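Recall the central idea of this unit: under ordinary conditions, the amino acid sequence of a chain determines the structure it adopts. In this exercise we apply that idea directly, starting from the sequence alone.
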Amino acid sequence: MLLIAQQHRFNYSNLSDIQPKDIVFARKRSKISQNELAGILGISVRTLESWERGHRKPSRAAQSLLRLFIRAPNLLVTYLT
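Accordingly, the structure predicted from this sequence is:
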C-alpha cells in the first residue's frame, strides 16, 4: 500500500509560478473585469489587484485555479459561477 501511495505523490516542483502579466492577459482576453474574476475565484478585488501587480503571490490552491483560468477560462467561468 505504501508503494502505491508513493507512486502517486504529486510533485510541486514541476509547477511554475503564475506571473502577474499572465493573470492580466487572460482576464483581458476573456473580457472579464477584475470584479468578475475576483467573484468567480471567491477573493476580494484588492487581492486580485495585488496579484496582478505582483505585490502578493497567490497560494498554491489559487495558482491551480489561475492556471485553469489561463488555459481554459470558459471552463472555470462555467463551473464556478
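The radius of gyration is 15 Å.
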